[in-house]
Design a protein that fits this description.
The chain contains 19 helices and three strands. It is mainly alpha-helical. It folds into three domains: 78 residues, no CATH class; 156 residues, UbiA prenyltransferase (Tetracycline Repressor, domain 2), CATH 1.10.357; 141 residues. The chain has a three-stranded parallel sheet with strand order 1-2-3. Strand 2, helix 4 and strand 3 form a beta-alpha-beta unit. Helix 7 packs antiparallel against helix 10, helix 7 packs parallel to helix 11 and helix 10 packs antiparallel against helix 11. The radius of gyration is 25 Å and the shape is elongated.
Length: 391
Amino acid sequence: MSNMEPLVLRLAGGFLRTDPSLERRLDAITGDGVLRADLLPVSDAALAKIEAARTEGRQVLLCSKGDARLAEELATLHGLDGVSDAPGQAVAQGWHPRDMARALRPHQWVKNILLLLPLLAAHRFEWAAIAQVLLGMVAFSAAASSIYVVNDLLDLEADRLHEKKCKRPFASGAVPIRAGVGAFFVLVALALGLGAMLGPLFVVVTVFYVALSIVYSFRLKRARWVDIGTLASLYTIRVVAGAAAVQVESSIYMVIFVFPVFLTLGAVKRLTELTLAKNDDPLPGRGYGRPDRGKLLNLSMLGMLASLVVFFLYTMSDQARALYPDRWILWLAMIPLAGWLFRMVRLGFYGKQDYDPIVFAMRDKRGLGLIMITLALMWYAAGLWAKWLGL
């Protein structure tokens, strides 16, 4: 090979670690249809080969039969000598299963502990019921991971603009887009297969969760205020799924109670993102800016107040009378519950928690202490301490 012989790199297989045609279609769906060349991840192997060619004094061309505008911008951005549509030499692309595992976000599976709530509320503690809920949690974990993959594929540009999210597997180019699409279908099939073992009602709830999540990923999360309501609904669906898994009737009070709780946490999530933002620009892929912090704070406080009112009304219901002989202790339980909700709102407003309030709540020792006090008081009000101790 002479020094002037061009080194040609394929856009799809070499220079980029992602599939440009698929990425372009995703961008057309979720953005303004114009990919930003400066945000596209670049293969380290391709960069090393380019540098070696430059050292040898060879011409370096970018080969692409796809988007000519994007190819030209990439060539200019990285100081290449031009663009060619001739067949070129591809740089081998690979990915590690560990990176795919990161894309599934297993740390988020802790959210599915919400499926246990109907079981606890109904005081169903037999092992068979617990096993059913655990199976439902595995199914919902697969369903949730499939949506995380979709979110990452649709949020490529927004994630690449984010200080931390730019390191996600798809945004960074560590895992190709086509692998993510395949993972989505495998995970949905797994979720439905496991769900079928729990009955048709659980399958219906799972399908609705996945469908609503996809609609949220494509459109709803870009609509101000609508996205917070949808987030709260997705969390509430987990509670309904728990009731479907063990086939217990979910109290209408529980559903009405958990929705404003999750509405509060959804507002806290956006509040935290705005507080931690580096400038006053709207959040990438969202419709919120720093001027909305006051409104988000009001919404979170309103959700907190609504949840406490519903909890109080539940203590006056026939179901509460049947399950809790000492209902006045339930009123005491509202104090640590209110303290936990206020703590979440306060920490979110001052940017002292993570971007996901549910995951943060599971690691927050003080917050967990308040939740444990609440549950202990409810346990005592139900007389379960005496029952378990044989008194």
